Amino acid sequence: MDAAELEPPTPTVDDAMLCSIERSLVVLGERWSPLILRELHYGNHRFSEIRDRLGIASNLLSRRLQALTAAGVIEQVAYQEPGSRSRLRYELTPSGRDALVILGALQQWGDRHAPRPDGPSVLRRHRTTDDELHVAFVTDAGIAVPLDDVRMIAASTVA
Amino acid sequence: MDAAELEPPTPTVDDAMLCSIERSLVVLGERWSPLILRELHYGNHRFSEIRDRLGIASNLLSRRLQALTAAGVIEQVAYQEPGSRSRLRYELTPSGRDALVILGALQQWGDRHAPRPDGPSVLRRHRTTDDELHVAFVTDAGIAVPLDDVRMIAASTVA
Lengths: 159, 159
Description:
The structure is a homodimer of 159-residue chains. Chain A has 159 residues and is an alpha+beta fold. Chain A is built from six helices and six strands; from the N terminus they run ααααββααββββ. The longest helix of chain A has 14 residues, at 100-113. Chain A is globular. Chains A and B meet through helix 1, helix 2, helix 5, helix 6 and strand 3 of A and helix 1, helix 2, helix 5, helix 6 and strand 3 of B.
């Protein structure tokens, strides 16, 4: 039996878990989950498409999709093509769409620090201007700040 | 035996692995690795500090630190306090510091979509202005763009 089979099907976020990084990882960090979200962001919504593109076993994919659905990150939507029976496809919810920032951050890091010989397979571009995009820390006003200016502080120390 | 014990100690990035998301996850995505990087970003550099704060078994932490060192994300640095023997601490390398964007993205998502009842435990602030910071897609000019304007495209389709 694959070690993954032993995992509970629906991850739950324990209220005692203080850190949002940890809380996100419970929902999104299981093996395959980021890659499933990537496929949905790329526009691949059908079970068979996702399965074939990832080379993942059907039962494992089912379980991951159930967990992501239970976590509210994706949802099943019925659709029907002319002359065909109704089928189900998976769509990102607003929280699943928000996860694009995480995927973009992972992708950018990989492009820089674990690059493949042929260069990045996927580019981040602005939909209308076609500008290259990066993932960065920004102020409320939407201005990027250098990493050296970023400080992580415990909320308990702030008045 | 814990399932984690079966994992190879040093993850390797296969050149055939096309996607930078996947390539990043090989290096950073193993269970505990993001939390170890979080501790280093928070300024906790000693083995015993990290072990005690995460509640992780010593042998597992050793293996994760070895893997992150082999991947070039952290390094061991000797230090000596007056009157003490020389000791080792772990420091982030430039690629480990770059991972702060990933941690920030995970944290922000958790703050919004898996919030804890008491609010976020950690805040992202500008070091000098104390402005609240977010993680977002930005242009080359450092201007944030809304998620709806972000497009992921296959590099092979770009001339």
